[in-house]
Write a structure and sequence with these properties.
Layout lengths: L8 E10 L2 E11 L4 E5 L6 H8 L7 E6 L2 E2 L5 H11 E4 L11 H12 L3 H14 L15 H13 L5 E5 L7 H17 L3 E5 L10 H10 L2 E6 L2 E2 L26
Parallel strand pairs: 3-8, 3-9, 6-7, 7-8
Antiparallel strand pairs: 1-2, 1-4, 4-5, 9-10
Helix pairs in contact: 3-4, 3-5, 5-6, 6-7
The structure holds adenosine-5'-triphosphate.
């Protein structure tokens, strides 16, 4: 089966289990170019597993993943790694930076791995750090930075090579309340200004009060919310939160980004 031509990323009937314990049970999703999609659901609902299948880190046991009308699920490991390196960016819940490298060197890693020259990689990485309000940290090593600064460097690293898709797995989890909305806005604004598609996993803010502000912001910055429950797409809205009643599995979130 071919993917719909207007979906940049498309998956059908994904199943994945860890040691026989199901994490995804037939998830299908389509994402258009430039869309910002918030993936919500309670802890353990399969958000990370879905992101990892869509980004080619995991091979689904059943189902198909297509990127730009080409199959990802049939690619050999080396080809999937090349695809991830060139076309995708990944932001984890904790900023895994290389401690020996400065902030700009960390941000520039995808470019350097692609074979870009040192000087040009430095210029591009510094520009992204400026855009993310951590330009003055460019020469510092991760240990000298606050957690929010480190996470911004990780965001810069995910965007620096102008990927087609950025997968962000609860990128604000380690941050204080005040930093969360800022990092999400910075990510979202940068992605929108460069036409980068974003899949952003967030906890179900209706169920997790501590994450409410960040996830409400993440959802409000998204074009659309997709909700998972027990490894399946939820059929009804699970929240009356900031995304509002329109934010069902296929519903549109308010897109109120103005940064
Ligand atoms: N490496 C692993 N080994 C075994 N089980 C796993 C592993 N990773 C995830 N799981 C299980 O798979 C299910 C889905 O987990 P997943 O991390 O995808 O959900 P999630 O919605 O991202 O959760 P969270 O919000 O807590 O990160 C859960 O039951 C989880 O315990």
């Amino acid at each position: 089966m071919a993917a719909p031509p207007d979906d940049m990323l498309w998956a059908r009937g994904l199943h994945y289990a860890y040691d026989g314990s199901p994490a995804l049970q037939g998830v299908s999703i389509g994402v258009k170019e430039g869309e910002v999609v918030a993936l919500t659901g309670p802890r353990g609902s399969g958000k990370t597993t879905l992101l990892r299948c869509l980004s080619g880190q995991l091979l689904p046991e059943q189902g198909e993943v297509w990127f730009n009308s080409s199959p990802v699920h049939t690619l050999a490991r080396a080809a999937r790694e090349r695809l991830r390196l060139r076309r995708f960016g990944w932001i984890d819940s904790s900023p895994r930076l290389v401690p020996e490298l400065t902030a700009w060197e960390n941000a520039a890693l995808p470019l350097l791995l692609h074979g870009s020259g040192y000087r040009s990689a430095r210029g591009t990485a510094r520009a992204w750090l400026e855009r993310l309000d951590v330009g003055d940290c460019a020469g510092k090593r991760p240990a000298a930075l606050h957690q929010a600064q480190r996470q911004r460097v990780a965001v810069a690293r995910a965007l620096v090579h102008s990927p087609d898709v950025v997968f962000a797995d609860e990128p604000t989890a380690p941050l204080h309340q005040g930093d969360r909305a800022q990092v999400l806005r910075a990510l979202s604004a940068a992605a929108r200004s460069h036409g980068i598609t974003v899949l952003l996993a967030t906890h179900d803010f209706a169920l997790d009060q501590s994450a409410r502000t960040a996830d409400a912001t993440g959802a409000a910055l998204a074009d659309r919310i997709v909700t998972l429950t027990d490894g399946r797409r939820a059929r009804t809205p699970t929240t009356g939160g900031a995304a509002g009643p329109s934010a069902g599995p296929e519903g549109s979130a308010a897109c109120s980004l103005s940064v």
